[in-house]
Amino acid sequence: MAKAWVLLEVLDGKIKRVSWEMVTLAQQTGAQEIVGLLIGQGVQDLTGEASQYGFDKIVLVDHPAVEKYSASSYTAILTELYEKEKPELLFIANTAQGRDFAPRLAQRIGAGQVSDVTAYQGLAAANEGAKEVAATHTEQGPSTEATLAGQGAFIRPIYAGKAFASVRANSFPLVVTVRPNAFTAAAPQEGSEQGKATPVVEVPSLAATEAPVDLSAVIKEVVKHISSRPELTEADIIVSGGRGIKGPENFPLIESLADTLGAAVGASRAAVDAGWRHHDDQVGQTGKTVSPTLYIACGISGAIQHLAGMNSSKVIVAINKDPEANIFKVADYGIVGDLFEVVPLLQAEFEKV
Ligand code: FAD
Questions:
Q1: Nearest-CA neighbor of 180 among 267, 95, 89?
Q2: pTM, whole model, 2 decimals?
Q3: Is residue 142 helix, strand or coil?
Q4: Which residues are annotated as a binding site?
Q5: What is the pLDDT of residues 292-339, one digit of tens each?
Q6: In this predicted complex, what is the ipTM?
Q7: Most buried residue, 144, 148, 177, 274, by CB count within 10 Å?
Q8: Which residue's alpha carbon is at the smallest distance from atom 41 of ligand 1?
Q9: Which segments of 137-250 does DSSP mark as H helices, in order?
Q10: Minimal-distance CA residue to ligand 1 atom 4
Q11: Is ligand 1 within 6 A of the CB of residue 98?
C-alpha cells in the first residue's frame, strides 16, 4: 500500500483527537507514506502540533474561503488535491462533518467508501478471506490482486452493532470514515521524527480561491450547547442517564458523578424526548455514536437503538433496578439496584481514588 491521507479535523481552532486515532489506523494498514491534510482559515498555526505525529508531509490549505466548513468547498478542495497525488486511502473522521462530505468526495473521485470503521484486520487474516473473494469475483482482475498484495480488512459494525462486516477494497482509491475513540490515538513525538522536520506544503487551492458553487446555504450557524465537560464523542468516560432518573431535577446526580470522573454526560432518547436533556447529549441510533473507555448507564433499559450508539464502549457499567434489563446483556459490570442509592455510593468511592 502506497499513500494514505489523513484529514485532520479542526474544531474551534483545535485538532480533534480522532485525527491522531486515524494516524494509528493509517499506520496499521502499512501505508508507506502518510500525509496529514489541514484545511481551514488560520490553521497554519496547527502545523507545529501536527508535525509531532510522524507524517511524511503535511498539506495545508489555509484560506478565508474555508473559514467555515461546507461540504461543497471541502469536496472541491479534496478532489483537487486528490487529482495531484492520487493517494490510495483517504481517512476522514466519522463525525457530523465527515459523514456529510465523505460520500460526496468518494463519488467525485470515483472511490469506494467504507464507513464508520472501528478496527482493522491485518493482512494475513484478511488475505484468507480475499482469496475466497477473488475466486468468486474473478472479473475484479488486477484490483483484487492489489487487495491481496497490500491490504487487510476494515471492520465496521452493522445492524446497529449486532454484527461486524469485514470490508476489503476491490479497487482504490478508498475513502474510509473512522469512528472516534475506536483506535488508540498515535502518541506525539517530541520534536521532529528522526531529526528531520515534517515538510509542510502549502497549497493555494484553486477550489478555495474560486468560491465553490454552493447548492446549499447555511441559514443558521452551529447552535452550541456550551459545556465545560468533554465533548461526548471524544470523551474517555461517559455517565449517561435514562428515564430511570425520573426528571431533570435529578440529573445533577449524574453530572456530579461525571465531574468526579472528568466525564461527559450522555442521555437516552427517552430522557431527551422528555426535555430533561439537550439533544446534543443523546446517545444512540438517532443520537451520537460513542466509544469511550468507560460508559456508565444509569436507569437505561438498553433498547437496541441506545445500544447502537454505545456498545463499542470498551467497558460498560450498568445500574438498573430491573435484573432483567437488556442493558445487562452488554454490560461488563452490572449493578442491580436503585440508582439514587448506587450512584452516590459510587461517587464516594471514586472520590477516594
Ligand atoms: P426506559 O426504556 O423506560 O428504561 C428506563 C430504565 O430505568 C428501566 O430499565 C428501569 O428498570 C430503570 N429504572 C427505573 N427507575 C430506576 C431506579 N430508581 N434505579 C435504577 N434503574 C431504574 N433511544 C436512545 O436512547 N437513543 C436513540 O438514539 C434512539 N433512537 C431511536 C430511534 C428510533 C427509530 C426508535 C423507534 C427509537 C429510538 N430510541 C432511541 C428509543 C428507544 O427505543 C428506547 O425507547 C429508549 O432508549 C428508552 O430509554 P430509557 O432506557 O431511558 O427508558
A1: 95
A2: 0.81
A3: helix
A4: 243, 268-269, 282-286, 299-306, 320
A5: 999 999 999 999 999 999 998 999 999 999 999 999 999 999 999 999
A6: 0.99
A7: 177
A8: 269
A9: 142-150, 206-209
A10: 301
A11: no
